[in-house]
Design brief:
Length: 354
């Protein structure tokens, strides 16, 4: 967690304020000033080519990647009346630059970030876009975005930590034709004790029909789906599998409902893949198959493990979304009494006037 936070601490890379002049887009001021001016001009050039059509600026907001500079930009384009211009208005860009591989920061906060860019554009307009004022506003909004990104990362990491505490692992069990029920793969790996693993294996041993079930033990709980997939190599032409989310304790119903859908999609993906069953076999134990088939065994095994990892990460997103919704509800509840008090004050004023 700490390593991830250190990597993301410089999430915000800079801000640019640009004007569309007679010779194209030109940065008026950018911050921090360590940013390369030639790069800023090339960024403006790309913004201009994307945000304009038929020589008319398309006002609004856009998320634009700049892979050459390893940035992702949130760009707000706007225009003001200007009688000195043939088209009767002057056009400008305000652009927030963040790390290339962290666009979720923009998408998760786009309304708030857009609001701040628009507010800054209004302040710049009030000061007639003077260079000194532009410099001051760019420094202010950059520092604001830096602080906002720090708070965002703190909340994200705390939610991630809580989610990781809530869900231990995503586990896929397989009924081996000789050894019986075994854990084929889990993510994170080796997080369950031997006793906990045995409890899950027992669940697969007694499962008789496809479907969901859950069970709680003193140390863990699980929410599982027993299912089968077609197999050309199994004795009964099918592989018996158990897919489980393992928790310290079962989560709330809204979360289990969301996880229910994740499990269904995973199972459907397994059942329609014509060769996925091969991943459950050990190449050294397979007799009478071609070499390329043994290579396919390795490929399908790795693919299944990657799917389990993705399923676990998707479950973390479910917990985070639920936590964010709870936080929003709490904040809304605290605001409601304030609105009522304002209404009471207004009614008192009216009675005095009468």
């Amino acid at each position: 967690m700490d390593n991830q936070n250190n990597k993301d601490i410089d999430l915000v890379q800079g801000v640019i304020f640009s004007k569309i002049g007679d010779y194209g887009a030109e940065p008026i001021y950018y911050y921090p000033t360590e940013l390369d001016e030639a790069s800023m001009r090339l960024i403006d050039l790309k913004l201009l080519s994307i945000m304009t059509g038929e020589e008319v600026l398309a006002e609004g907001i856009a998320v634009i990647p700049f892979p050459r500079f390893k940035f992702t930009g949130l760009n707000y384009s706007f225009a003001i009346l200007d009688k000195t211009k043939p088209e009767g208005r002057a056009a400008f860009f305000l652009t927030l630059l963040i790390k290339e591989k962290k666009p979720e920061f923009i998408f998760q906060n786009i309304d708030h970030l857009t609001e701040k860019l628009k507010a800054t554009s209004k302040i710049l307009e009030q000061h007639d876009f003077r260079i000194a004022d532009a410099r001051l506003q760019m420094i202010r909004i950059y520092k604001y975005f830096i602080e906002f990104s720090k708070k965002y990362l703190e909340i994200r990491d705390s939610l991630l930590l809580e989610s990781e505490k809530s869900i231990l692992a995503a586990v896929l069990l397989y009924f081996h034709r000789k050894a019986g029920p075994i854990i084929f793969t889990s993510y994170p790996e080796q997080i369950l004790t031997n006793e906990q693993s045995k409890k899950l294996c027992k669940e697969l041993e007694i499962a008789i029909r496809e479907g969901f079930f859950s069970r709680s033990y003193p140390d863990i709980s699980h929410f599982s789906y027993y299912f089968e997939i077609p197999s050309d190599w199994a004795r009964g032409k099918k592989e018996m599998l158990l897919l489980s989310f393992v928790f310290r304790k079962l989560p709330a119903k809204d979360i289990t409902n969301a996880l229910h859908l994740k499990l269904i999609k995973f199972v459907e993906k397994m059942q329609v893949h014509p060769e996925i069953f091969k991943g459950f076999y050990n190449p050294s134990e397979i007799v009478g198959v071609l070499k390329q088939e043994k290579n396919k065994v390795t490929q399908m095994s790795e693919l299944t493990k990657q799917w389990i990892k993705s399923l676990y990460l998707a479950s973390i997103d479910v917990f985070q979304s639920s936590s964010m919704e709870e936080a929003k509800k709490k904040s809304q509840k605290t605001k409601k009494p304030q609105k009522k008090s304002k209404k009471k004050r207004k009614s008192k004023k009216r009675t005095k006037r009468r």
